[in-house]
UniProtKB/TrEMBL annotation:
InterPro entries: ITPase-like_fam, RdgB/HAM1. The keyword Hydrolase applies. Keywords: Hydrolase. The gene is rdgB. Its EC number is 3.6.1.66. Gene3D superfamilies: 3.90.950.10. This is RdgB/HAM1 family non-canonical purine NTP pyrophosphatase. The lineage of its organism: Bacteria, Bacillati, Actinomycetota, Actinomycetes, Pseudonocardiales. It holds the Pfam family Ham1p_like. Belongs to the HAM1 NTPase family. GO terms for molecular function: ITP diphosphatase activity. It comes from the Bacteria.
Length: 193
C-alpha cells in the first residue's frame, strides 16, 4: 500500500463551506492556512449525529466543486435530553436562540453537556470525517459577548468561562474545533505552520 495515499504534500488554502465568516477565521487560525468561506447549498440530512450530517454534506460539496473542501457541523448535547439538540442545534438557535435553549432547559437539574465538531474533508482520495468532543455544562444564563452560536451558554469542563467569555486564543486552545482540526491534520497531513 502506498504510504502517501490520502496525504497532502502541500496545502496553503482551502474552502470551508459555510456562511459564517467567524467560523472560517477560527479554522484559519487553527490550521495556519488560508480558509475561505464559501456559501453553497448542500443536502443536509436530518440526524442528531453530526458525523452522519457532515459525511453527506462533504460528499455533496465535493461533487459540486470538484476540489478539496472542508465542511463542518457542530452539535450540542444536553445529556438530560438524550441527544438533543445534537446536530439540530443550529435550527434550535435560529428558531429560539441561545436564550430559548436556556428557557427550555430551565427545569433541567443535570446540566452536563457535550459539544462535538465533525470536520469533513473530501478530495480525489475520498471523504474522511474527523471529530473533536468536549464535556462541559449548560449555563443558566447567557454569559459573554464573543463567539457565536451557543458559545454564550456552554462552559467547557475545567474552566469557569463560557466560550463567549474567552478570547479567541483561549477558545482555540481548548475547543472541540481544535480537537477536530488536530485529527484532520494527522489524518490528511496538513501541518500548522
Amino acid at each position: 500500500m502506498n504510504p502517501n495515499l490520502g496525504r497532502i504534500s502541500v496545502i496553503d488554502r482551502i474552502s470551508l463551506i459555510t456562511g459564517n465568516e467567524g467560523k472560517a477565521r477560527e479554522y484559519a487560525a487553527l490550521l495556519g492556512i488560508e480558509v475561505s468561506a464559501l456559501k453553497e447549498d448542500l443536502i443536509e440530512i436530518q440526524s442528531l449525529d453530526v458525523v452522519e450530517v457532515v459525511k453527506r454534506k462533504v460528499e455533496d460539496a465535493y461533487s459540486k466543486l470538484q476540489r478539496p473542501v472542508l465542511v463542518d457541523d457542530t452539535g450540542l448535547v444536553l445529556n438530560a435530553w438524550n441527544g438533543l439538540p445534537g446536530a439540530l442545534v443550529a435550527w434550535f438557535l435560529s428558531s429560539v436562540g441561545a436564550q430559548g435553549i436556556l428557557d427550555m432547559a430551565s427545569e433541567v437539574a443535570d446540566r452536563s453537556a457535550t459539544v462535538t465538531t465533525a470536520l469533513g474533508y473530501a478530495d480525489t482520495n475520498g471523504v474522511r470525517v474527523f471529530t473533536g468532543t468536549l464535556e462541559g455544562t449548560l449555563t443558566t444564563e447567557r454569559r459573554g459577548d464573543g463567539g457565536f452560536g451557543y458559545d454564550s451558554i456552554f462552559v467547557p469542563a475545567g474552566t469557569d468561562l463560557t466560550f463567549a467569555e474567552m478570547s479567541s486564543e483561549q477558545k482555540n486552545a481548548i475547543s472541540h474545533r481544535r480537537l477536530a482540526v488536530e485529527e484532520l491534520q494527522k489524518g490528511v497531513g496538513i501541518s500548522n505552520r
